[in-house]
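Appendix B, record 7
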Amino acid sequence: MSVSQGSGKKVILRNSRARHDYFVEETIEAGLVLVGSEVKSLRAGKASIAEAYAQAKDGEAFLYDMQVNEWTFANRFNHAPRRDRKLLLHKAEIKKLDEATRQKGYTLLPLEVYLSGGNIKVLLGLCKGKKQYDKREDQKEKDAKFDMKRAMGR
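Structure tokens (predicted):
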């Protein structure tokens, strides 16, 4: 599926464990500073955000531990697969996120990486960790919805 300039978004990566292990209280869209070979790898889906997290430091925001595999055709101009990537946010947004993550139990996680109008963006979520009983409660709700849907289909 090709995406033309100015059209909707095409999700490249999704962090499915984030919504299972954390309460997402707020989301924010940010741009990523990438090199050419990273863009090629991301468009091909050769990446992972499973262990990634974001953090504000010295008035700038960075995305850490995002795995973007090397592009095989980039030869010596290739990128480091786990390098820190700068996030493009306004100063007020960075300050707000920094203050929020300083609170106990809050972290900033990437939920999705997607293509939006030709640019690669990341959807960050301000998350608070779930306890085991919260996860069980969510699973019960999901199962109940599934059972209701199945009963309605009969």
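Remarks on this record: The chain has a mean pLDDT of 85. DSSP finds four helices and nine strands in the chain.
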